[in-house]
Amino acid sequence: MSGKTVIVTGATGFLGRQVVKEFNRRGWNVKGTGFTRADGVSILKVDLANASEVEKVLDEHNPQVVVHCAANRFPDKVDADPEGTKKLNVDATRSLAKLCASRGILLVYISTDYVFPGRLGDAPHETDAATGPTNLYGLTKLEGERAVLDESSGVVLRVPVLYGPAESNAESAVNVLMDVVLGVQGPGANSKAVKMDHWALRYPTNTEDVARVCHDVAVRYLEDSSDCASLPRVLQFSSEDRYTKYEICQLFGEIMGLNIDKIEANTQGNDPAASVQRPFDCKLSTRALRELGIDVGTQDFVGWWRREARAFRK
């Protein structure tokens, strides 16, 4: 695929950086888009809500593929800014899908396992399983999926909660648990116990693995570009590693040799009064990817953290 060009939206973000790195490693011409952290060279400053800015970038760089990573992806932040989230997660996605479709560009849209209700007994979810988000974040990502499927011949790639190399632990709902473990240490730590969810099942997946799959999907779909109608439009990728957030804290404590007695397991599930309701088990089936011949192997969660955890002790 040398000589091909890819544009990665959200290229300065947690997943976007790894997608840029992976396509670069595979010999592609890579351009990223960002906004507040764009350097104007490798990362182009583009307001995705401005169709003329997006159109200009597409026409200047003529990509064969766009990987759309940009999103407001934290459920609590989504609830705090529903209008801004809709503009990015839904409206900008629809506009991008139309622009890609009119230019014959393959769009790979990163979605989430939170499009499913995650009820007891439903998992694993196949790509055609009934959706039913439990929160606004999942709803906006599902509406983004529909925009891509309606407006283009693009591909939806659903992924679960992510971990991996980060500029700050707060970039990831998994990495940030290291801060929780570190925060309850020492005499100056908060004496009040921290309650941590020990109910919802999560399948943490490394951003490096997701980036590899994005590349492999792009290659596979470009190879069959003359017969894309025969290829699935919705794909799913996930690790098989399963943890609650409390279990991840236990693991981090063990790896770092730290006591987590001040972290208490909360097995109560969703607080009915909470604005953000989270699903119980959204495990994603990877069947569609496997049937395409795409490697769905992932890094071992425990092994990765045993190697890398010290670097996250900020």
How would you characterize the overall build of this protein?
This protein is α/β, with parallel strands linked by helices. It has a domain at 5-164 and 205-238 and 283-298: 3-Layer(aba) Sandwich (Rossmann fold), CATH 3.40.50.720. The chain is built from ten helices and eleven strands. The chain has helices at residues 16-25, 51-61, 75-80, 82-103, 136-151, 176-183, 207-223, 245-256, 287-291, 301-308; strands spanning 5-9, 29-34, 43-45, 65-68, 106-112, 155-159, 162-163, 194-197, 205-206, 234-236, 263-266. Strands 3-2-1-4-5-6-10 form a seven-stranded parallel β-sheet, with helices on both faces. The longest helix has 22 residues, at 82-103. The radius of gyration is 20 Å and the shape is globular. The two termini are 39 Å apart.
- CATH homologous superfamily (4th level) name of one domain: NAD(P)-binding Rossmann-like Domain
Mean pLDDT: 93
**CATH class designation of one domain:** Alpha Beta
| Rg | 20 Å
Distance between the termini: 39 Å
Order of helices and strands: EHEEHEHHEHEEHEEHEHEHH
Structural class: alpha/beta
Number of helix segments?
Answer: 10
Name of the CATH architecture of one domain:
3-Layer(aba) Sandwich
Q: What fold name stands as the CATH topology of one domain?
A: Rossmann fold
GO molecular function: methionine adenosyltransferase regulator activity
Protein name: RmlD-like substrate binding domain-containing protein
GO biological process, one term: S-adenosylmethionine biosynthetic process
Pfam family, one: RmlD_sub_bind
